[in-house]
């Protein structure tokens, strides 16, 4: 990563992640310039191939913003997303890639501050990992 800004891809559920992202922007909260936000109908639509493609194309981290358990419009989409992230973390580790590059982030629609906080925590974690290498 060096002096470059970390590239973070955020797959955002249209019911929770996108409203939280828009709320963060409306509040003027700090978000990285290199944050790429991709809207999905549900966090459960963040398929393995999309996540791996984002990493393959140079994302330093991929975050999936979905509803809290019990609040998914599609009943279990958020649970599928979390299971997919857990599975991919195991696969990445077996390939010698840091599993921390992928995060499942439950968020409420009006939680712009929490959205920005989770993204900033990821940026700090990336910076910390970079400084250790």
Give the class from helix and strand content and strand pairing.
alpha/beta
Number of H/I helices: 4
Radius of gyration: 14 Å
The percent range for strand residues is: 15-25%
Outline the low-pLDDT stretches.
Answer: none
Provide the helix percentage.
40-55%
Q: Which term fits the overall shape?
A: globular
CATH topology: Rossmann fold
Summarize the helix and strand pattern as letters: EHEHEHEH
Give the biggest sheet: 4 strands, parallel
Q: Tell me which CATH architecture applies here.
A: 3-Layer(aba) Sandwich
Look at the structure and give the CATH class.
Alpha Beta
Q: Provide the spatial order of strands within the biggest beta sheet.
A: 2-1-3-4
Domain tally: 1
* Whole-number mean pLDDT: 91
Secondary structure: number of strands: 4
Distance between the termini: 10 Å
Written overview of the protein:
Strand 3, helix 3 (77-94) and strand 4 form a beta-alpha-beta unit. The chain has helices at 17-26, 48-56, 77-94, 112-132; strands at 8-13, 35-40, 61-66, 102-106. The chain is globular. It is an alpha/beta fold and 133 residues long. The chain has one domain: Rossmann fold (3-Layer(aba) Sandwich), CATH 3.40.50. The protein has a four-stranded parallel sheet, with helices on both faces. The model has no long low-confidence stretch (mean pLDDT 91).
Write the layout of secondary structure elements.
Elements: E1 8-13, H1 17-26, E2 35-40, H2 48-56, E3 61-66, H3 77-94, E4 102-106, H4 112-132
Parallel strand pairs: 1-2, 1-3, 3-4
Helix pairs in contact: 1-4
